[in-house]
């Protein structure tokens, strides 16, 4: 009930603010976050049982496929005929159902949609050798295989 009241208040605020203002854009983003939170709290048996929302990812349960996929969380093979797995509709992040609660990276598409400007400077990052050929975020080894 509190979340529903917050959503209604946010809707009123959006309508009251000047159109195309920064405050209105922020309120719209807030409304989206509130609605996603409400969807997370709903019983999965309701409405859309094949959708799970985690860190702004919208994960859909995949049907079994014979093609082997890789889990983006644990970097192991997803055996489509045997295991249940999910794919984010925004950034195509794939993971096992067991890895879903462990996802720590927010959806890239959601981050980009909140960011209204482009980064026009050349990327200042150093190469993989300075990272010891490991992922900068999770420190998993990166190889050509």
UniProtKB/TrEMBL annotation:
Residues in Phorbol-ester/DAG-type domain copies: 56-107
GO MF annotation list: zinc ion binding
InterPro entries to which the protein is assigned, alphabetical: C1-like_sf (IPR046349), DEF8 (IPR051366), DEF8_C1 (IPR047983), PKC_DAG/PE (IPR002219)
Keywords: Metal-binding, Repeat, Zinc, Zinc-finger
Function: Positively regulates lysosome peripheral distribution and ruffled border formation in osteoclasts. Involved in bone resorption.
Protein family: Belongs to the DEF8 family.
PANTHER family tied to this protein: DIFFERENTIALLY EXPRESSED IN FDCP 8 HOMOLOG (PTHR12326:SF3), PLECKSTRIN HOMOLOGY DOMAIN CONTAINING PROTEIN (PTHR12326)
Protein name: DEFI8 protein
Organism, scientific name: Pheucticus melanocephalus
Gene name of the encoded protein: Def8_0
